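Tokens for chain A. Residues wanted.
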């Protein structure tokens, strides 16, 4: 059987980063920058007040105390957005609002809480050192500074700085568009009555959510039956807008395996056994002129999700222009013994606590979705290990 590492390496060799496009800021959340972004101006662009208060000359209020306040005349108000030049003469103050430009001559701001709040004359009860409550021009960013590097994922803070340096749009890689399609004649939509031999379809909901958590955009299609021609017709109708396709089911060794039967003749998709548990049957390849990657995952719910974590999530990272490789792990001590088949890498579902311990869940079957829902980690048992005693330090993939 093919190793987990070899299968992932083959996938990462085949997938390509999505071509960058210009994205307006309203559409850039979750995209990945394909350019370095520099600020054309200093931030802040001018000295401004960090608080509501009074712009003063620090020397004029140096002697102020609670017992003996310094009382000074208030000349003008300076509001945020003020564009007219303002100045503070010796022995005078101006009321100033947060974000307003500091008037010429002022070298400190006294917070209103240190005063009696006067409008004609103000009693100042504490001295303010030079620079107090003033945001200096360029203290955040100097003109020409790089504020974001290519390869940065755009989140709320990144959108803020992009807008803050005046950008309306950026060159970035969009979130991959992924179509998710389950197969199986036994599958029916949740909420509909179950007939004999039927189950509610769940894999596509799990996989769509996983794609979205991994930074992609996902579309779920209704499950198709066990007819290869029906599956292929459905698939061909999805390729036009998709950056990737994920299927679940229809790839095992038995009869009625529509994905395998439909795609094997194309010779661009390979179906193999990977030395892992759960998730041994795997399919991967590309489709159409655009060479759209297709991930043909097993149909058992746990197998499908574990396969996503190991193979699809790293591929989506590469498509987004991010570093891609095996899922990161942490070390933990297993609280009970565990077994694994010889020659396979096992991924046991477990509960990782905040104290460095991980406990396998009681039900490890590849069909036992409730046990997966109660887990928050995958315990990795290496290919050459068949038994782990309680207290062994293991590698764990947090979910």
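Reply:
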């Amino acid at each position: 059987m093919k190793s987990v590492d070899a299968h992932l390496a083959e996938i990462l060799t085949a997938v390509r980063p999505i071509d960058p496009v210009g994205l307006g800021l309203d559409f850039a959340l979750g995209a990945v920058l394909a350019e370095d972004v520099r600020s054309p101006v200093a931030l802040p662009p001018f000295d401004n007040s960090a608080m509501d208060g009074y712009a003063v000359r620090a020397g004029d209020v140096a002697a102020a105390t609670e017992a003996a306040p310094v009382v000074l005349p208030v000349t003008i108000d300076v509001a945020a957005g003020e564009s007219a030049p303002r100045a503070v003469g010796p022995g005078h103050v101006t009321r100033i609002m947060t974000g307003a430009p500091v008037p010429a001559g002022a070298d400190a701001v006294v917070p209103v809480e240190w005063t009696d709040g006067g409008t004609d004359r103000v009693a100042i009860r504490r001295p303010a050192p030079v620079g107090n409550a003033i945001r200096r021009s360029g203290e955040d960013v100097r003109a020409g500074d790089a504020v974001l590097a290519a390869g940065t994922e755009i989140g709320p803070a990144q959108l803020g700085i992009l807008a803050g340096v005046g950008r309306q749009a950026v060159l970035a890689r969009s979130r991959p568009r992924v179509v998710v399609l389950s197969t199986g004649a036994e599958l029916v939509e949740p909420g509909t009555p179950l007939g004999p031999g039927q189950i509610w379809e769940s894999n596509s909901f799990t996989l769509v959510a996983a794609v979205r958590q991994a930074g992609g955009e996902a579309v779920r299609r209704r499950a198709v039956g066990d007819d290869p021609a029906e599956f292929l017709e459905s698939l061909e109708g999805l390729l036009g807008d998709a950056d990737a396709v994920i299927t679940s089911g229809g790839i095992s060794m038995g009869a009625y395996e529509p994905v395998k039967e439909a795609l094997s003749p194309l010779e661009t998709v390979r179906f193999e056994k990977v030395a892992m548990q759960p998730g041994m049957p795997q399919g991967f390849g590309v489709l159409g002129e655009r060479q759209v990657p297709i991930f043909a995952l097993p149909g058992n719910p746990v197998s499908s999700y574990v396969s996503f974590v190991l193979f699809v999530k790293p591929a989506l990272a590469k498509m987004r222009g991010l570093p891609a490789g095996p899922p990161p792990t942490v070390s933990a001590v297993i609280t009970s013994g565990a077994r694994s088949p010889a020659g396979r890498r096992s991924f046991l579902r477990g509960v990782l606590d905040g104290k460095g311990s991980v406990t396998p869940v009681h039900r490890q079957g590849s069909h036992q979705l409730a046990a997966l829902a109660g887990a928050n980690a995958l315990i990795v048992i290496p290919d050459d290990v068949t038994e782990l005693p309680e207290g062994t330090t293991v590698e764990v993939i947090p979910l």
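The two ends are 26 Å apart (CA to CA). The first strand starts at residue 21 and ends at 24.
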